[in-house]
Design a protein that fits this description.
InterPro entries: Chromo-like_dom_sf (IPR016197)
Protein name: Chromo domain-containing protein
Helix content: 10-25%
Order of helices and strands: HEEEEEEEEEEHHHE
Number of domains: 2
Length: 218
Amino acid sequence: MHKPMINARAQQTERNQRRHQHAKKPNFDVGDYVLRSRVDSKHQDKLLVTWIGPYQITRADSHSFTVRHLVTGEGTDVHSSRLKFYADSSLQISEEIREHVAAQGQILAINELLDYTWNSVKKGYDVLVSWKGLEPIEDSNETAKSLAKGVPALLRQFAERCDDTCFERHVIALTKQRSTADAHRPIDMFHAPRPRNSGNGKAILPQRKFAQDEDLDI
């Protein structure tokens, strides 16, 4: 992997660790007309995006929306932080958005676990994650430890497919530690029950905030 790409991923991971404590609820509804931000490039801690559209929201999930382009009819899934209400004057206006998602405290749904690497500094594995509604340039490395807390089943399935005994044993150990810790934790130390809905549940984690196993289609 080229060094600039490695540095970009490292910077993305660092930004993911700086999150607000409370997530913001999306304020869009089915039928709304919106613009979508297209990420054109990435430079240091900035995303260079262009607002394109107009689109109409055709489906609303917990933290992402399905939108349809009014001209082409093309549909796509977009994270709520990548949308804004439609205004003619905003079309095709490029702008730099610093900390585009990282500073917004958004809850993200995992699209896929892509790859893994050993982090010699942290003495653990990092897993490359793609996020539902975000673009490939925004894939980020999350620690296996944090994924084991929020999506243990998804992480175990990924480890089994990787055909790497060391990595799989590491993941099994992490998920067992999590199960043991939960079994011995007093009930009053648990967070309030998570609301069930047709989308994804919420998990407040040290890095990305992402939907938990039981609400993912795995």
